[in-house]
Amino acid sequence: MRSIAIIAGKEFRDGLRNRWVVATTALLAALALSLAFLGSGPTGEVDASALSVTVVSLSSLTIFLIPLIALLLAYDAIVGEVDSGTMALLLTYPVSRWQVVTGKFAGHVAILAVATVIGYGLAGLALEIASDGGDIDAWEAFSLMIVSSMLLGAVFISIGYLVSTSVRDRGTAGGIAVGAWLFLVLIYDMTLLGTLVADQGRHLTAARLSWLFMLNPADIYRLLNLSGLSNVSSLTGMSGLAADVNMSPLFLTATLVAWIAVPLGLTIIVFSRKQL
What is the rounded distance in angstroms from the CA atom of residue 85 to the CA atom of residue 5? Predict the structure, then answer.
């Protein structure tokens, strides 16, 4: 555990030195504050709290932004150090390969977690100060969004590590990472929508559709935040979908955790057999 903590601390310090933490925090805070105050204008007309509307806006933003940031952090984490020769040097120390992967992963997750908590937390605190009082249900949804955003980021960091371990140069890793982002965030749902329209409910039932959602971490995140709580789903028009899917927030969270564990486990297996 001590070796893992040392490697994770080094990755986090490198993130501070390379301005990753500062830049990501500033970006998330600026976008979150903008969406919080611009998006809360019509709340009086729809009888919803500003924080609930902010959860809807930030969840939609997170699906596109957090995975991209995570992949940019992770795509060259292994292959970059192999190319530069520092990985061979690191492995001369009394540390195993699985500890290297786990430590680097923990450091990158910590970078994204700090940026998410501070960036989104500032928006929530600003709305709390600007509003007359807090909404407990809205704060529950907001807290769930922050935690699930960190989990979504960890999923894509894990995917980035698998890509970084499986290729031989940074350019290939970057191309595959961008392709993975495009497929999971955009193409998968567009394909699913097209299939739904063509099928017209003949074969693709609600039960089958719900399990197809489980094959995409972005869709799991969307279900967890936009349909998992009634005070938010009513604002997104997804209350009917929530009833059809019939999956609890605990199950959706566990599925996101599985999406983290499987690519990370494959990364450790591939890296343990990789010739440096």
Answer: 22
The domain in which residue 96 lies consists of 2-272
In angstroms, the CA 57 to CA 236 distance is: 10
CA distance 210 to 204: 10
What letter would DSSP give residue 169?
A: S
DSSP string, 81-146: HHHHTHHHHHTTSS--HHHHHHHHHHHHHHHHHHHHHHHHHHHHHHHHHHSSS--HHHHHHHHHHH
Closest CA to 129 of 50, 46, 52: 50
Neighbour tally for 120: CB within 10 Å: 28
Model pLDDT for residues 85-133, shown as the tens digit of each residue: 888 888 888 889 999 999 999 999 999 999 999 988 888 788 777 765 5
176-232: pLDDT as tens digits? 999 999 999 999 989 988 887 887 767 777 677 788 889 999 999 988 887 655 444
Structural domain count of the chain: 1
What's the start-to-end Cα distance of the chain, in Å?
A: 24
Which tokens is 264 given? 């990370």
Residue pair 104/8 in contact (Cβ under 8 Å)? The answer is: yes
